[in-house]
Amino acid sequence: MPPITFFSLLLFLCSAAHRADTVLGFTRSDFPRDFVFGAATSAYQYEGAVAEDGRSPSIWDTFTHAGKMSDNSTGDVAADGYHKYKEDVKLMVDTNLEAYRFSISWSRLIPNGRGAINPKGLEYYNNLIDELVKNGIQVHVMLCHLDFPQILDDEYGGWLSPTIVADFTEFADVCFREFGDRVSYWTTIDEPNVSALGSYDNALFAPGRCSDPFGITKCTVGDSTVEPYIAAHNMILAHASATRLYREKYRAAQKGVVGINVYSSWSYPMTNSNADLEAAKRYLDFVFGWILEPFASGDYPAVMKTNAGARLPSFTKSQSQLVKGAVDFVGINHYYSMYVNDRPLDKGIRDYSADMSVNQRASRTERPSGKQVPSASPSDPEGLQFVLHYLSEAYSDLPIYVQENGNSSNDTLNDTDRVEYLKTYMGSTLKALRNGANVKGYFVWAFLDVFEFIGGYRSRYGLHRVDFKDKALPRQARLSAGWYSGFLKNNGTYIQNELDNTGPHAQQ
Ligand SMILES: *[C@@H]1O[C@H](CO)[C@@H](O)[C@H](O)[C@H]1NC(C)=O
Ligand SMILES: *[C@@H]1O[C@H](CO)[C@@H](O)[C@H](O)[C@H]1NC(C)=O
Ligand SMILES: *[C@@H]1O[C@H](CO)[C@@H](O)[C@H](O)[C@H]1NC(C)=O
Ligand SMILES: *[C@@H]1O[C@H](CO)[C@@H](O)[C@H](O)[C@H]1NC(C)=O
Ligand SMILES: *[C@@H]1O[C@H](CO)[C@@H](O)[C@H](O)[C@H]1NC(C)=O
Ligand SMILES: CC(=O)N[C@H]1CO[C@H](CO)[C@@H](O)[C@@H]1O
């Protein structure tokens, strides 16, 4: 065989193997009919209108107005979803979305944190939900997506106080009562891991508490060694309490389900040494186990109790009973994988990351990133498959929804990288499903460009572009919106040439 042919054959085989592994060899109809495809946004990131119609500030208003974002941005206007939701639901119809996940601004609905309902806030969410239902789009609600009323932070430190459990349950009660006739899918809290660490360990997120040397800035208030654990503990209790309420008061009539969300990365050991294999396992216990193990066993993973000692709160007997079994499904937000190796437990003061006792990075070649968000995060669709299998096995086949998955891009409309990313991660989801993982849905983050908690308006995740420089905030479909739309519409038809012969508005 002449070298050139041999070489082409080799190339062909390699790329065929690669394609078989990663490329779209599937259609919508390969997924079960009750599997649901959607896209997501969240209240502070999408709505804007922060001082309108009776909304009170959330912790994110305070944080952004203190100039804490690297681009000095705020969510004051964001994508102006408060005014543009009808137009956006129309875009969802154009995109053939089967479901939409959004979150409720607690401080818009109940401006004092507890007590009186804001009629305008109630009206907004009723209108949005009606618009979705009218258009046949399944409604998935996140109750608390990183923002809660500033007034509760002022009063008792928000998630740091057990008082929030009762207030959160009351907020959930209002939502179940007012919206539950049209909403069956409830998720209580978004990314407790990220929220606990970002808010109380490294100060990347509102309210920006930390203690030296763990913060991204010089710390003035907080205690990174214990507060993240306390916050997560109260989130777990708040979730469990809201779930119990739903089950006792609403489930029989409304027939819905209540789940919690976790931020998820797969963890690969850097080497095959026992120490690194253990480290990768420990990572999973810290990421997933921290939040999910209490719902399975009523307690935290043993390794967390050992490494964090008394800094990790313990469950009382009645808390343990409340929490155990208090979850109908798990939602995961998934973006990339991590590579970990063992790091000896520091003898000095430790926060959560130090307790985990691993070095982590988002690619094999990067230097360990310490406690910050990785600078680059290569696509690793297989990692999602591992996560779905791991969760199915570790948590007795609880239904799983991929509630966020997506890729950032620049402002371009021709977002070929995003199409590739979504395709391959949806492919991994299908493989996991075929291999028995109990995965029920997949949501792209984000339906359109929004204010990003990391990166403000510099970082674009939308299927639809928002032109933030134009006061009218016009939306434009990206290539990815057209691609997703075609995938969802053409049911049994394999979409193949989407990148070859189409511009950004193709298939719309
Ligand atoms: C999609 O395809 C499946 C199986 O091929 C079929 O049962 C279903 O009715 C189709 N749905 C739509 C909306 O065309
Ligand atoms: C943000 O605002 C601060 C203070 O007003 C200013 O010093 C800084 O240059 C601004 N940064 C950006 C990226 O605009
Ligand atoms: C997005 O896609 C690009 C190109 O594939 C990749 O370099 C980047 O790391 C991805 N980002 C995430 C969050 O996956
Ligand atoms: C956006 O990124 C793509 C690669 O993903 C690149 O081809 C394009 O030039 C970039 N556009 C801008 C405006 O930076
Ligand atoms: C979109 O980007 C791809 C790859 O970067 C390129 O081949 C194609 O010509 C671009 N399409 C348009 C309409 O700009
Ligand atoms: C263990 C784990 O994945 N922790 C993540 C929780 O969220 C923070 C972001 O605030 C990540 O940096 C951690 O890796």
TrEMBL record:
Which parts of this chain are annotated as the region Disordered? Answer: 357-381
A Pfam family recorded for this sequence: Glyco_hydro_1
Query: Which keywords does this Swiss-Prot/TrEMBL entry list?
Result: Glycoprotein, Hydrolase, Signal
Q: Does the keyword DNA repair feature in the UniProt annotation?
A: no
Signal peptide residue numbers: 1-19
What PROSITE patterns does its record include? GLYCOSYL_HYDROL_F1_2
Show the GO MF annotations: beta-glucosidase activity
Annotated membrane-spanning segments are none
Has the keyword Oxidoreductase been applied to this entry?
no
Q: Which GO terms describe its biological process?
A: carbohydrate metabolic process
**Top-level division of the source organism's lineage:** Eukaryota
Instruction: Identify its protein family.
Output: Belongs to the glycosyl hydrolase 1 family.
Name of the protein in question: 4-hydroxy-7-methoxy-3-oxo-3,4-dihydro-2H-1,4-benzoxazin-2-yl glucosidebeta-D-glucosidase
Tell me the organism: Lolium multiflorum (Italian ryegrass)
